[in-house]
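A further point concerns the way the authors explain their paired sequence and structure data. An entry of this sort, consisting of the sequence and the corresponding backbone structure tokens, reads as follows:
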Amino acid sequence: MNRRLALWAGGDTGKAALASVLRATGTANYKRRPQVDLVVGEFTDVEAWEPEIMDQAIPEIPDRVHPRSTTGPYDGPELELAEFLGGVEILGEVADGLGTKLAIVCPWVSEHSGGDRSGTRIGQRAGGGLWFHCDHAHCQGRTWRDFKRVVRRTRSFTIHPPGAAGPLMKVEVRYER
């Protein structure tokens, strides 16, 4: 019901889970310290609804179709995760027995409630498959395809022209979106 209410009222669905605590008017949010966000609001002409009436009045949430996650062998083109790191901030490497996993700042962080920078990971399976995952409700259902559309892909090459005696040339190619 919390999520239904948040969607119906245009509120923050990221704080609609059962385990979340909704802050009451007049309290403070210290999560983005040193910035403190005061919770403000005003209730006017409030009439309490019985749970049955709320259930009838608030629309149901339609079932979302999530893209299928594949765990089979990767048979796509050879790509390196490093080619997609030029446009993201890496927070650190995360232990993963299936390949490489990096904690990053989500490219959609400005749309996360409170600007939370945690909870986003990208990686490459040992077989070559690339993946993206963000824990925030706003990014629910976003895939590697969505991620690669918003970051710039780069590839670096070192070139040593035949017969050249000078230093090696390093070339970086950036693929525009």
Observations:
- Residues 2-9 form the longest helix (8 residues).
